[in-house]
Amino acid sequence: MSWKNLFDETELRETIRRINKLTxxxxxxxxxxxVAQMMAHCNxxxxxxxxxxxPKPKGFQKFMIKLFAKNxxxxxxxxxxxxxxxxxFVIADERDxxxxxxxxxxxLQKTQQLGAEYFDGKESHAFGLLxxxxxxxxxxxxxxxxxxxxxx
Length: 152
Known about the structure:
This protein is mainly alpha-helical. It has helices at residues 9-20, 35-50, 59-68, 70-74, 97-119, 132-149; strands spanning 122-124, 128-130.
């Protein structure tokens, strides 16, 4: 499956339009997170790139993540509904809808502005070096999965 190219300004605008359809009252079609928690969850992918908030896996743990999770995350197949997620992506506390939405859009715009070249060959938090296509799939597939979860 082909995913939106979030490095492309036009395709990014289409994705942001989908995000802008969300409201604090938007209900999930599956799963347990509310809409603000979902956006906070999606922001973790960008925190892993732009902050040192989350510790990097090391040794055997990193090996196992690369072995079992990398192809799921950067591969072309869509995520299954109600898939398990890494502990750092679990958002159980209450979140502010507008704050998380602003953070998500800002993260998307920052990523697009940095461009595909910035990400080509950049090391991921857990998966090692990724090319620009893998980075785009990582970002785009995850976000699309959760936007579909909330019907947009």
